[in-house]
Design goal:
This protein is of the alpha+beta class. It has one domain: START domain (Alpha-D-Glucose-1,6-Bisphosphate, Chain A, domain 4), CATH 3.30.530.20. The chain is 34% helix and 38% strand. A hairpin with a 6-residue loop joins strand 3 and strand 4.
């Protein structure tokens, strides 16, 4: 009886958790917005700063659709750390905004939206990398113990730091 109560309470607690997550990080880069924007708008340039590319240098990558901007598609298949998925650049507004639809296939199926915003500050640019997505029941259980911010926040920070080095010509 006590176990049943614990299970019911746990299920209720998980069910009441938010169904959406958002992770965001911002960095200021000493380069004009169009220079920084170009690093994100072309998937071919991502390997220079994308932290997941560094986790699996043998990862299989393909590019489809437009060479850059809206309609560009990037797919990857890699080790357990990077999994498998597809990114489609759905909106490109130079030099302010890039929106990407992410479809994760492995290690678990999920979809999310990533967004990069570029805010000019004189000759510098404040770049925000964010990701939002929905959490099903199983994802809510995982999120209860290891939140998305904890899972990917440090990777966003690393990626933005590497993007800063590339855009500032220090790579």
């Amino acid at each position: 009886m006590a176990l049943a109560v614990i299970v019911i309470v746990f299920v209720v607690v998980v069910a009441m958790r938010p169904s959406e997550y958002r992770v965001a990080r911002t960095i200021t880069i000493s380069a004009p917005a169009p220079v920084v924007f170009a690093q994100v708008n072309d998937f071919h340039k991502w390997n220079a700063w994308n932290p997941w590319a560094k986790m699996d240098p043998a990862m299989k990558q393909t590019y489809e659709g437009a060479p850059a901007g809206t309609g560009a598609v990037y797919t990857w298949t890699g080790n357990r750390q990077v999994g498998e998925g597809r990114m489609t650049l759905t909106e490109s507004r130079p030099p302010d905004l890039i929106r990407i639809n992410l479809e994760f296939l492995k290690p678990f199926a999920a979809t999310s939206t990533a967004e990069f915003t570029f805010r000019p500050e004189g000759q510098r640019t404040a770049v925000t990398w964010s990701m939002v997505g929905n959490l099903n029941f199983v994802a809510k259980v995982i999120h209860l113990f290891v939140g998305m911010d904890r899972m990917i926040g440090a990777n966003f920070e690393k990626g933005l730091a590497d993007m800063k080095s590339v855009a500032e010509g220090r790579s």
